[in-house]
Amino acid sequence: MSEAKEGHSALTNIVMALIFIALCGVAMWDTTNMADPDSYVFPRAVATALIVFSVMLILYSLLRPGRGGRDLEGGEVQKGGNTPRRVALVGCMLGTAFLMPVLGFLPAGLLSFGALMLSAMYDPWTRFRLIVYPIAGVAIVAGFYLLFSKAFLVPLPEGIFFD
Fold first, then answer.
1. Which terminal CB of the chain, N or C, has fewer other CB atoms within 10 Å?
2. Number of Cβ within a 10 Å radius of residue 12
3. Is the pLDDT of residue 7 over 80?
4. DSSP E strands: which ranges in the chain?
């Protein structure tokens, strides 16, 4: 990767992180009008976490040494993006948003995770990946479902089939 390209990438990271910090500031300010403390805990927690990660990205972008187009093992870094994968990502997110009221949070989340996993996989499928990735996906989606529905008591979409 050229010096100019790496500098451009660092600048882009810093600008985007600053935009997210500003948006989080607006979101946190907006929660000051909420009367119920339960209403503003979650948005403030997410905004605080995003601010922390944005500051970490800024520090990383300023302090990281250049790798000169090589990954940590010395191999060439894949350059550019993959437009079909990006389109699939947007399609998966939109599909999930439209399916969630119909199927409910858990089934739509599982379908979304599976579709994202299939569309984002660069490496070849191995027996290990075929076994572990779906198990991890079910555990992650079910964990979020339990966390939000039972611990945070967030009313999640149940879907028309599960009323």
1. C
2. 11
3. no
4. none
- Burial per residue of 130-160, b for 16 or more beta-carbon CB atoms within 10 angstroms, e otherwise: eeebeeebeeebeeebeeeeeeeeeebbebe
Q: Let me know whether 99 and 135 are in one domain.
A: yes
On whether residue 58 sits in a domain, the answer given is yes
Q: Give per-residue pLDDT as tens, 64-97.
A: 866 544 444 555 555 556 788 889 999 999 999 9
Give the pLDDT mean for 10-33: 93
Instruction: Give dist(CA 123, CA 63) in Å, integer.
Output: 30
Nearest to 10 by CA among 51, 49, 52, 66: 66
Domain hosting 147: range is 83-151
